[in-house]
Amino acid sequence: MALKIVRRLIPDWGTTYGPPGDGPFPAIMVFHGSEGAWSGWSHRNAVIFAAHGFLAFPFGYSNGGNAWNAGNIVDVPLDRAADALAALRAFPVTGKKVGLYGVSRGAEHALLLTSLMVRDNLSGIPDAVAIHSPPDVICGAFDGRVWRDAGDPGWQSWDPGKRAWSWRGSSDELLPTTPIEIERFEGPLFLSHGTADRVWSVDMTRRLAERLHRSGRASETHYYEGQDHVPGSAAENEHHEHLLAFFERNLAP
């Protein structure tokens, strides 16, 4: 039986998942959340994209970690993601258009990368961006080793005293609570969020959508009623239908 999904290695960067054949295929760079690169969630999402005709590249950006430890999001260089995006665009089976998809801290990463690339007028800006459960502001650092459950004394989901991201060697412009200026991006943008999210409030996506509207930027926005940070089966199926349709419209030839 012929494989319907095949792995291809981008030298020095990591694996991709996509359909068999020589392509070219519309491509999507997939950003994991605070669960880290080793958890497998971004690879699972990449395989779903691959099953629908996309070349998907799960980009591991967290520091350290292993199969038992999420690693950390402390001083993560966003420049590295820009370089990885360029490597994906240069990959022989990649088509003319490349999108980004991020969830939670991965959504924050995708938003920041896109807004900074636009601000600095860099080449290779994403052709479309989709995010699920995003924050609307820059968040503090996260270290999986010190994670504590909600309700424990001193619980917090991220450390406001440390910085999560850097750009061109500096984090001075990426302070926690700074609004993410995604309204700079003029391309297609997909936002989604569960209304009962207990990790990132749905109000964050509502504020993003409102800011985009005030700036004259259109976005495709979906709210999943009663859903938590990770949607249930029926809601996730609905989400993937919306998400795949968005990328098919905006990336496919």
UniProtKB/TrEMBL annotation:
<dbReference type="GO" id="GO:0006637">
    <property type="term" value="P:acyl-CoA metabolic process"/>
</dbReference>
<protein>
    <submittedName>
        <fullName>Prolyl oligopeptidase family protein</fullName>
    </submittedName>
</protein>
<dbReference type="GO" id="GO:0006508">
    <property type="term" value="P:proteolysis"/>
</dbReference>
<dbReference type="GO" id="GO:0047617">
    <property type="term" value="F:fatty acyl-CoA hydrolase activity"/>
</dbReference>
<dbReference type="GO" id="GO:0008236">
    <property type="term" value="F:serine-type peptidase activity"/>
</dbReference>
<dbReference type="Pfam" id="PF00326">
    <property type="entry name" value="Peptidase_S9"/>
</dbReference>
<dbReference type="GO" id="GO:0006631">
    <property type="term" value="P:fatty acid metabolic process"/>
</dbReference>
<dbReference type="InterPro" id="IPR001375">
    <property type="entry name" value="Peptidase_S9_cat"/>
</dbReference>
<feature type="domain" description="Peptidase S9 prolyl oligopeptidase catalytic">
    <location>
        <begin position="172"/>
        <end position="251"/>
    </location>
</feature>
<dbReference type="InterPro" id="IPR029058">
    <property type="entry name" value="AB_hydrolase_fold"/>
</dbReference>
